[in-house]
């Protein structure tokens, strides 16, 4: 995981007050750079709300700076500094509040070349030093990471490349989302929800030939496979899926797709929110919270659509004891 260059700058903006602290050179500790990248990448991968796309046709300041850096007109430090300066102007123009360190990491591997940009937040803490003395300290709270962007620098050069810019946002970043997407010049090219729902529709059609119990189990296992791929940051290839999820149907899933839905993408990025209903049914009000496996419906749990009621059998023993007051 070689991080060939890494630098961070701080940008703070409160209403009526703005400041940024710029570092004048990249970090010079390769091991720590790689540790930073090792923290950011899995966090980015695990996020469910990533958006995939590319730069819009219209030129933006960020795109221009990126081109100049790649053409070596700008050095890495100059590039990152100018990005922060323009981000500061954006925050002022949009009257947005923000505080954090903006991390820039260039990652070069044999088969990949990426630029990572992440807004990191700090947290106060305590430490015991070498003299066993208690001290206050601050450290990076990766769980509170804001925007995280990944740019595939190889794919930008592909004339047909439409998925080289991926953005994700942290909790509480809603006011910043659209301004930052405009700043990057981001345009969506992948509708993960539509692709996932279309694929699961085909899976449901395929499972119709199975006994009901097998059909529900199959759909659940397919959804779980897709969910795991998403958590690993990987796309789903339905041919690979067909070889990993057992089917009792006479026709294989890939043959069924070739015949019934040849237009279906062989590979797609799964959307976790669209998959959940194939694994568990969930719902809550202020008074009630319900969650159960989709395989339970029709067996230990019966739904009456006319009355809108659920009948539950085989209640958990702990719940029965609570109801009996034991």
From TrEMBL:
It is found in: Cytoplasm, Nucleoid. Keywords: Cytoplasm. Its main location: cytoplasm. It holds the Pfam family NA37. PANTHER family: NUCLEOID-ASSOCIATED PROTEIN YEJK, PTHR38772. Coiled coil: none annotated. Belongs to the YejK family. This is Nucleoid-associated protein.
């Amino acid at each position: 995981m070689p991080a060939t260059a890494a630098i961070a700058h701080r940008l703070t903006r409160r209403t009526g007050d703005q400041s940024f602290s710029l570092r004048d050179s990249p970090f010079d500790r390769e091991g720590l750079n790689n540790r930073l990248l090792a923290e950011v990448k899995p966090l980015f991968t695990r996020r469910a709300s990533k958006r995939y796309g590319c730069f819009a046709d219209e030129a933006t300041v960020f795109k221009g700076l990126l081109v100049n850096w790649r053409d070596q007109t700008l050095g890495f430090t100059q590039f990152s500094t100018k990005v922060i300066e323009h981000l500061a102007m954006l925050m002022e123009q949009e009257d947005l509040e923000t505080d954090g360190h903006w991390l820039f990491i260039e990652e070069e591997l044999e088969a990949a070349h990426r630029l990572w940009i992440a807004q990191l937040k700090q947290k106060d803490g305590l430490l015991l030093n070498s003299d066993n003395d208690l001290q206050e300290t601050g450290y990076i709270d990766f769980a509170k990471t804001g925007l995280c962007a990944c740019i595939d620098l190889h794919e930008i050069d592909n004339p047909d490349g439409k998925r080289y810019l991926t953005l994700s946002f942290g909790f509480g970043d809603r006011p910043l989302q659209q301004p930052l997407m405009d700043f990057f010049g981001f345009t969506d090219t992948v509708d993960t929800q539509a692709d996932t729902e279309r694929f699961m529709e085909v899976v449901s059609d395929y499972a119709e030939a199975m006994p009901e119990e097998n059909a529900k189990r199959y759909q659940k296992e397919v959804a779980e496979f897709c969910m795991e791929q998403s958590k690993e940051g990987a796309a789903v290839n339905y041919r690979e899926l067909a070889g990993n999820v057992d089917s009792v149907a006479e026709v294989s899933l890939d043959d069924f797709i070739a015949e019934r839905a040849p237009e279906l993408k062989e590979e797609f990025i799964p959307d976790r929110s669209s998959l959940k209903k194939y694994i568990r049914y969930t719902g809550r009000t202020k008074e009630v919270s319900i969650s159960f496996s989709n395989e339970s419906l029709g067996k230990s749990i019966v739904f009456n659509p006319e009355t809108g009621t659920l009948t539950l059998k085989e209640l958990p023993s702990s719940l029965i004891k609570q109801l009996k007051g034991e």
